[in-house]
């Protein structure tokens, strides 16, 4: 079984878990606190970032998009209609664009700040950057949530899936990011009906089940988090 070093509230880690889940691959999960700079972990990834996959032969593969490319090359090519990356080069470019949107732009605008301020700081020492939440940072991130939900609502309302006619890595990247925000209760789904319908479909997929059982010490999820009919 492959091993993934992850944190339950990192969108990039959730993306990887969903991707393997769609292919029916089980992962052994090791929760990592990257801010702790654990020496054993740094020996696998000197950058100290997650996710990190220990692949066949215990070779470390670092970074969500790199892991996704590895997964596509080693498993996806055999999945035909269930492949998470398109055959067409233009469609592949659109999938990669949206993966980058949710794992890079949404992360920089919204997810990273809300997770750090609301969930991680209480478990960090002062030397690691812990302390009281920064209310100004939280307000700015919450203002940005609306723009990302509007864009997701537009995508979901004009396409069968976010990148086109088939489920793809784009949907899994978006689900990874938005499920973190949903856990934190930061999404007013009633304002974004198309995005809500898309997210409900995502939550109902078998690959999503392990995410719905995630719990973070000291921070319970919003009441509807595990509800498929929310």
SSE ordering: EHEHEEHHHHHH
Number of alpha- plus pi-helical segments: 8
Instruction: Tell me the number of structural domains.
Output: 2
Which CATH class of the largest domain? Mainly Alpha
What oligomeric state best describes the polypeptide chains here?
single chain
Question: What's the end-to-end separation, in Å?
Answer: 34 Å
Helix content: 40-55%
**Which regions have little confidence, pLDDT < 50, spanning 5+ residues?**
none
| Largest beta sheet: strand ordering | 2-1-3-4
Largest sheet: 4 strands, mixed
What fraction of residues sit in β-strands? 5-15%
Subunit structure: Homodimer.
Keywords: Transferase
GO biological process, one term: glutathione metabolic process
Protein name: Glutathione S-transferase
Q: Any key phrases for this structure?
A:
230 residues, alpha+beta, Glutaredoxin, Glutathione S-transferase Yfyf (Class Pi), Chain A, domain 2, 2 domains, four-stranded mixed sheet, 8 helices, 4 strands
Short overview:
With 230 residues, the chain is an alpha+beta fold.
Describe the protein in words:
With 230 residues, the protein is α+β, with helices and mostly antiparallel strands. Helices cover 49% and strands 7% of the residues. Strands 2-1-3-4 form a 4-stranded mixed sheet. Strand 3 and strand 4 form a beta hairpin. The protein is globular and about 50 Å long. The relative contact order is 0.14. The model has no long low-confidence stretch (mean pLDDT 95).
List the helices and strands and how they pair.
Layout: E1 2-6, H1 11-22, E2 27-31, H2 39-42, E3 52-54, E4 60-62, H3 64-74, H4 89-120, H5 135-158, H6 169-183, H7 193-203, H8 209-212
Parallel strand pairs: 1-2
Antiparallel strand pairs: 1-3, 3-4
Domain GST N-terminal: 1-79
Protein name: Glutathione S-transferase
Pfam family, one: GST_N_2
